[in-house]
Write a structure and sequence with these properties.
The structure holds 2 protein chains of 2 kinds. Chain A is an all-alpha fold. Helices cover 75% and strands 0% of the residues of chain A. Classes of the chains: A mainly alpha, B alpha/beta.
Chain lengths: 273, 322
């Protein structure tokens, strides 16, 4: 007896439906956790105050306003933190009995984690909105037109979606939610701080500066600053990723999605507790 | 003649050096209830996980609802319902939302999912709690909701892994009622349990597993009849060795002395008891108590799995596969 052939089109439609159902489930869950909502909405406010004023008061940006320089960086950071959250959430999902229930259902193998990923993206939108409002309140302005600003946010979301899949992979590989939390935060802090997110790497020691320049987070935040019109000077010469930040970010996001998503799906459907 | 709903042939599975399943074969006819009986670690859950496509067997093959669990997992999944040991309902969703989500995952569509969810909540006495978050449910309510979720796609074969473990007696009785009502609807059920009375009440056939092997199988009656022979126990007023020896001779070859009592298998139930009392009276031995004792189901279980030292008759007849 051979495997019953299911038409590709029906499988695809079923898969999309499953992903929709899963996303819906995670969104309902998200809605039911007011303490988590409060925390995630408060974090960007704290960041704007902490970095914009506590550190920002001592940071001088040549020919510009530090808070205008900072805001695209904070948008990039919120995207990174969202990846950390999804990592812990996936590890938690995997440690609960509900995974067994899902695996005995006739659903597409990818549906649950795609649902996780999409719902994280959607739940991240209010956080971004709060951050935009905070930014506007402290003097940040996207001065290069609304179209480019929207493009910038789409780029942030795309990159966030891609990084989210790396977070999901860590969540799937980690043995427990606690482990995922510890593991995922190491690369996030390194990527976030050894970059041009908060400060201009020009003053860093050479070895650190090279890392900071080539860090994808620098490309992302440079792309954002370019599209918002918040750039403070020409990019360092010889660093291709910063000379073409939009193309770099876009390309990298696509590569991560194409490579990491199938790995996650395989890992999810083969994992045995 | 319909094909069996479940067939498993020589399933084996190890986890590292632990051999969870050594050789398990079983066969469950459509529309019947089979209880997989065994202690913790006997291999019950591993068997269920293989049959429900959650785990691959190292050796052996199994078919559920006509499809191979290893090579036709998607087909198997559309035909089974599974209620595991761990709670699988989402705490942050209401009972109704949980059932509807499972229904949508089974591609029933939103309307049908809602209809069946409402009917199942009614059937499992959860209508009043339908709009409450599951985190406010009691243990018994969660298990019933879990069971309802397994039924939303109207499965041909239902797997229940220790459906009543950890429940209080009242919730347990309610769960039994729910399971029995399903069975009357014609669903094939494979349940695992460590409770003999549960297997006895719910199952048409019982498969006893121990250390990854099937050690006995049959109907509850067959198992009890072959292993559960009653005992005659004669207790003397004091431990007088001479008197105990006389009683032991009277009760036959299989009699054993323990303390101030002598016990022996009763070949013909009450007839023997009557004979014993008559002979004791004739011999004039002072007697404290004479009684017929039926081995408890737990003793039957111990006998079959060979872990306990009760002086019961060895497992005999067709049911013993060791």
């Amino acid at each position: 007896m051979s495997q019953t052939a299911v038409p590709t089109e029906r499988r695809l439609r079923g898969g999309l439906l499953d992903a929709y159902t899963a996303t819906r489930r995670f969104l309902i869950r998200g809605k039911r956790q007011p303490d988590v909502i409060f925390g995630t909405l408060l974090t960007p406010v704290i960041f704007v105050v902490l970095f914009g004023y506590v550190f920002g008061s001592s940071i001088v940006v040549p020919g510009g306003n530090y808070r205008s320089y900072l805001m695209p960086g904070l948008f990039a950071m919120s995207v990174l933190f969202s990846a950390a959250n999804v990592s812990v959430a996936v590890a938690t999902d995997m440690s609960e009995g509900v995974v067994d229930r899902f695996r005995t259902l006739p659903i597409a193998r990818s549906a649950i984690i795609i649902g996780r990923s999409l719902s994280t993206l959607l739940l991240g939108i209010p956080v971004l909105l709060v951050m935009i409002v905070c930014g506007l309140a402290v003097g940040w302005r996207p001065v290069d037109g609304l179209g480019n600003a929207v493009l910038a946010f789409l780029l942030f979301e795309l990159f966030g979606f891609a990084i989210g899949w790396l977070g999901i992979l860590i969540g799937l590989l980690a043995g427990s939610p606690q482990a995922a939390d510890v593991i995922v935060n190491i690369p996030i802090f390194l990527m976030g701080f050894i970059s041009s997110v908060f400060v201009d790497p020009a003053n860093m020691p050479v070895w650190l500066r090279v890392i900071a320049y080539w860090n994808p987070m620098s490309a992302l935040v440079t792309a954002g600053r370019q599209l918002f019109g918040n750039t403070i000077g020409p990019p360092p010469s010889g660093v291709w990723s910063l000379e073409h930040p939009i193309a770099t970010t876009f390309g990298l996001a696509l590569i991560i999605i194409i490579v990491v998503t199938p790995v996650c799906v395989r890992r999810y459907s083969h994992s045995v507790r | 003649m319909t094909a069996p709903a479940i067939t498993a042939d020589h399933l084996a599975r190890s986890f590292g050096t632990t051999r969870a399943l050594v050789d398990v074969s079983l066969r469950v006819e459509a529309g019947t209830v089979c209880a997989l009986l065994g202690r913790n670690g006997a291999g019950k859950t591993t068997t269920v996980r293989i049959l429900t496509t959650l785990l691959a067997a190292d050796a052996g093959r199994a078919r559920v609802a006509g499809f191979d669990v290893a090579h036709q997992a998607p087909e198997v999944r559309t035909r089974i319902g599974v209620t595991g040991q761990t709670a699988t309902m989402d705490e942050l969703l209401t009972g109704a939302e949980n059932l509807e989500t499972i229904g949508r995952f089974c591609h029933l569509g939103a309307a049908t999912s809602r209809l069946r969810s409402t009917a199942l909540l009614e059937q499992f006495d959860l209508t009043a709690a339908a709009r409450q978050l599951v985190k406010h449910y009691s243990g018994g309510m969660r298990r019933r909701l879990d069971l309802a979720a397994s039924l939303i796609a109207r499965p041909e074969v239902l797997f229940l892994d220790e459906p009543t473990t950890g429940l209080d007696p009242v919730s347990r009785a309610e769960m039994w009622t729910s399971i029995r009502s399903l069975v009357s609807g014609g669903t094939t059920v494979l349940l695992t349990t460590q409770y003999l009375d549960e297997a006895d009440r719910l199952a048409d056939t019982i498969v006893v597993v121990d250390r990854g092997l099937v050690v006995a199988e049959g109907t509850p009656e067959q198992l009890k009849a072959s292993i559960g022979r009653p005992f005659v126990r004669v207790t003397l007023p004091d431990a007088d060795p001479a008197a105990l020896e006389r009683v032991r001779l009277l009760l036959g070859d299989e009699a054993e002395v323990s303390g101030r009592s002598v016990s022996a298998p009763a070949g013909a139930g009450l007839v023997t008891l009557e004979q014993v009392v008559t002979r004791l009276r004739e011999l004039g031995i002072p007697i404290h108590e004479v009684g017929l004792e039926h081995p408890s189901l737990d003793e039957v279980f111990s006998t079959v799995t060979g872990h306990s030292g009760h002086p019961a008759a060895p497992a005999a007849g067709a049911v013993d596969r060791r």
